[in-house]
Amino acid sequence: MTSMNTYADNLSSVDALAPIFKAGGDPLRLEILRVLRRDTFGVLELSQLFDMRQSGMSHHLKVMNKAGLLEPQREGNAIFYRRPLHLDSDKPTDQTIRQIFEAVDRVPLPPHLQERIEAIRTQRADQSQAFFARHAEQFREQQELIAAFDLYAEPVAEMIRKRSRKHQWQAALEIGPGEGAFLPVLAELCGHVVALDNSRDMLAKATRTCIDERLNNIDLIEGVTDTLLARGDAFDLVVANMVLHHVPSPADIFLDAAALMNNGGCFVISDLCSHDQDWAKANCGDLWLGFEPEELTTWAADAGLVAGEQLFIGLRNGFQIQVREFWKHSGQI
Fold first, then answer.
1. What is the pTM (predicted TM-score) of this model?
2. CATH code (residue 7)
3. Are residues 71 and 163 in the same domain?
4. Is the CB of residue 325 less than 8 Å from the CB of residue 310?
5. Most buried by CB count within 10 Å: which residue of 29, 75, 147, 235?
6. 55-59, 160-164, 327-331 — which is least confidently predicted?
7. Where's the HTH arsR-type domain (predicted)?
8. Domains in the chain: how many in total?
């Protein structure tokens, strides 16, 4: 009887694999999985990427979702698609899905597809940049509709100060400094600080903060992380406070932070947990409605970073903030 039960269980497991291979047995669907490696796209964006009608793309996504190859992610009234966050290493179905991902990831994207992805990212970046250009004077007021600065800045500062007692950090980078309110913390702990922002209006306000606070060890640079990578800059500490939900491709921030950090470097993030407050897009310029903690952990692991301390802060308005640290070398935690 035991052997019969074992045979039935094995047969059931094999049967469960069939829909996965069937759903993945289409070249277009494998291409979709490739572009979802580090990005999240909506149906219209995917239709744009692959130059096909929305109805056809919706069919493919439905089949792949049912097979567990991808999952929907609601962003307000819009639905985006991503690779599944929770894959159990012990389940044959999840092992198979992971192996499919590993196989397609070994094949580089063709240039024309990469160009289309960059075009979508540029559209997103332009949308965010335009918002901050329009609302630079109301920046603090807009941001505090979600969370007051001190609610996340103080825990981040405390985490960094605690780590600085053990590490001799010389150079720090803040991505998206806004008005520059966090720069005094970094200027106190590190000999050289770079503040990087793609909004000229926000950099002007950060410059005023540096003047008022007499911060003489800060370079303010207009640009994106690629700007610093091209210069060959390197940092011991990288900070991004409430920035990820404004950038077109959050996963790329982890890759770029890892590339910009020295060995033993630390990447500290504060950002929103996933939420359903769609008004934040129009009122605060958000591109994404927060992130699952597992998303950040996965993106960090893909970038070769190791997760360290984490803190979750619940707010009265229903939002939750996650404060996370990621290290370039696990032995340095």
1. 0.82
2. 1.10.10.10
3. no
4. yes
5. 235
6. 327-331
7. 11-108
8. 2
Pair (147, 74) in one structural domain: no
In angstroms, the CA 127 to CA 105 distance is 29
Pair 172, 86 in one domain: no
239-284 tens-digit pLDDT? 999 999 999 999 999 999 999 999 999 999 999 999 988 888 888 8
Asked if residue 200 has pLDDT above 80, the reply is: yes
- CA-CA distances (angstroms) from residue 326 to 9, 221, 236, 280? 41, 24, 12, 27
CATH of the domain at 274: 3.40.50.150
55: tokens are 């109805």
Phi first, then psi, for residue 308 (nearest 5°) are -120, -130
Averaged pLDDT score across all residues of the chain: 90
In the chain, % of residues over pLDDT 70: 93
One domain, residues 97 and 153: no
Residues 44 and 152 in one domain: no
- Closest of 289, 203, 305 to residue 253, by C-alpha: 305
User: Is there a contact between 173 and 193 (Cβ–Cβ < 8 Å)?
Assistant: yes
Q: What is the extent of the structural domain holding 101? A: 2-109
Q: Give residue 301's Cα distance to chain centre.
A: 12
From the number of C-beta atoms within 10 Å of its C-beta (0-12, 13-18, 19+), residue 239 rates as buried
> Which of 75-79, 118-122, 202-206 shows the lowest mean pLDDT across its residues?
75-79
Look at residue 316 and tell me if it is in a domain. Answer: yes
User: Taking the C-alpha atoms of 141, 146, 148 and 151 in order, what is their torsion angle to the nearest 10 degrees?
Assistant: -170
Q: Residue 102: what residue type?
A: E
